[in-house]
Amino acid sequence: MTVTVTEAHRTIDAVWRIESAKLIAALTRMVRDVGLAEELAQDALVAALEQWPSSGVPSNPGAWLMTIAKRRAIDHFRHLKMAERKHEEIGLDLETTQQAIEVEPDEVPDDLLRLIFTACHPVLKTEARVALTLRLLGGLTTDEIARAFLVPESTVAQRIVRAKRTLAQKKVPFEVPAVPELAERLGSVLEVVYLIFNEGYSATAGDDWMRPQLCADAMRLGRILAGLAPQEPEVFGLVALMELQASRSRARVTPDGEPILLLDQNRAKWDRLLIGHGLAALERAESLSRARGPYVLQAAIAACHARAGAPEDTDWERIAALYGELAEVTPSPVVELNRAVAVSMASGPEAALPLVDELAASPALARYHLLPTVRGDLLAKVGRLAEARAEFERAASLTRNSRERDVLLARAKAAAGE
């Protein structure tokens, strides 16, 4: 079957999303330099872009990329006139490429776990740890990361470059931290895992509303971390949150891939097994007898939805209260926006609109498409349809996800009576 260049590039993009983290992790173990490992992986990606449109996608694309990357590594060390022993080590490793690339589907390779802790090392600032790990493990572009953090793309690019340089200069070891250091390193790791999950759950760009593989990767990482830190409530809170949100996946899109809002979803399609796992993880988190952190609180909010058999059964007053508690733990305009939505559901749009109007003045939300989305919804409910249409059109201009843009433009037309 003839494959067009565009189709080949789409396939390569999909393969890269799945294989890039494992590829970079394995290369980092070999060359002991995260920055160099990513460069070698990118070289392999370029080779795929050049060759696969004409030669076709290989039967094992991950192994193909690994082989090319390792050959580039040999060339690199030869160019630097490294010791012959280093050449031999990498050369021998080429013979076991197939073994190195094959991983049990339900396991996260040790290299992957080492990579996330290396990228989240304390020598880096928090924002740099998160950006670098999203880049290396999530395979996200700097633009996608920037949108997740509501900061300029150039800022994220600088963070990533500086982070890789710092790791190399400080000679950060490629390892999972020992138990005494584990607790202090978990916070940024959990943040990264959840951002990876979110990018899979609601893609910031492209033609798809969801990227299930990213959700699956994040949940596997979360479960591994739960095994490493069995007394940390926030780890179980994060696992609960991801599983409760993932339980809705099959109900979140139409057969054509169009997004379905939470209150419009067919709850019979929600995954009861995942809900059970999520509620059990939340119960474990709350049993550890500590003040509730941000992930436990967000999981408690998700549990309110999971326990409601129908939209009208949702305990919106409790959700609004939980968002208020969350705002005290982690002050954020995004949290306040979510609280305003809950207030609207509990007390009506008139009670929530002033809260959203106040947030509209926040510079941090100036390019955040969900702010005009929420404001448009509230304005439509109070009958201010012309203003609602303008807000939905503004939201559509801000989102980078084509599916979401179509929905917002349709809501704008509906507000105008078209």
Can you walk me through this structure?
The protein has 20 helices and two strands. It is mainly α and 418 residues long. It has a two-stranded parallel ribbon. Helix 10 runs antiparallel to helix 11 and helix 12 runs antiparallel to helix 13. The chain is globular and about 70 Å long. The two termini are 44 Å apart. About 4% of the residues have low confidence.
What is this structure's SSE topology?
Blueprint: H1 5-31, H2 34-55, H3 61-79, H4 84-94, H5 97-101, H6 110-119, H7 126-137, H8 142-149, H9 153-169, H10 179-201, E1 205-206, H11 212-228, H12 233-246, H13 272-287, H14 294-307, H15 316-329, H16 333-347, H17 349-359, H18 370-381, H19 385-398, E2 400-401, H20 402-415
Parallel strand pairs: 1-2
